[in-house]
Design a protein that fits this description.
68% of the residues lie in helices and 0% in strands. It is mostly helical.
Length: 242
């Protein structure tokens, strides 16, 4: 079989198909290793010193794992979606992911809520990391490598199954919230939201042939959550005068 790399413009010459159980096992093993590295970094550095160091460790390791997996599976840059899309975002998809996030936030009001910043500087940090860096890495990993490998394994005729597996895997990767102090009920709500939004991310990836639209949609989804959470945090910490 010909040797191929991420820069190979002719991926059909050396396609490697994997089994779905094998892909799922590899995906969750990768995430477990990434989460463990992030935990070690958090213990060494401490969140109080730099709250984003562990995020950088988690996402950076995930990006490296995606690159290794892409080259191991002989995928080209175009095949994993590193190209301009055939079209960008539909208004319906944008409104849908915003609604999903807002509804999830409303349900969480009164219970455990993801901690949000109280200063403009930390809010800008959240917007950069959560709304720019994280979406790019997670979409590269899930919609770039995993969804491409799943589409290979299931063949092009099973597009709906590819979308479902992509969204379900994306959702399960957010199980880590429970290790960040979130109750099980909150974690399940977050996972439901990421599954529903993941359906739109995966569909955008499939229809456009690029990871650019899902990255943009993921950014909108996360930005909605950050602004909604920051607003709720402000209201809870600034009660109306009696």
């Amino acid at each position: 079989m010909a040797s191929c790399s991420i820069l190979d413009p002719r991926p059909q010459a050396c396609i490697k198909r994997r089994s779905i159980p094998g892909l799922l096992l590899q995906t969750f093993l990768i995430y477990a290793v990434c989460a463990f590295i992030a935990y070690i970094v958090r213990v060494i550095v401490g969140d109080s010193a730099d709250p984003w160091t562990s995020t950088l460790a988690l996402q950076g390791t995930m990006a490296l794992a995606a690159i290794i997996s892409i080259n191991r599976d002989s995928m080209s840059a175009a095949e994993v979606g590193l190209k301009l899309p055939s079209h960008y975002l539909h208004v319906g998809s944008i409104l849908a992911v915003i609604l999903i996030n807002v509804l999830g936030g409303v349900i969480l009001i009164g219970g455990w809520f993801p901690p949000m910043p109280h200063t403009h500087r930390s809010l800008l940090g959240n917007i950069f990391w959560i709304c720019a860096f994280v979406p790019a890495v997670e979409e590269f990993f899930v919609r770039g490598w995993f969804q491409t490998a799943t589409a290979r394994a299931l063949a092009k005729t099973r597009k709906k199954r590819v979308i479902l597996l992509s969204a379900a895997t994306f959702s399960l990767l957010h199980l880590g919230w429970i290790f960040r102090g979130a109750p099980l009920s909150t974690t399940l709500i977050i996972m439901l939201g990421t599954f529903l939004s993941g359906l739109f991310f995966a569909r955008c990836r499939q229809q456009s042939g690029s990871i650019v639209p899902p990255i943009l949609l993921h950014t909108i989804y996360n930005l909605t959550g950050v602004l909604f959470s920051a607003g709720i945090t402000w209201v809870l910490t600034h009660p109306a005068p009696s």
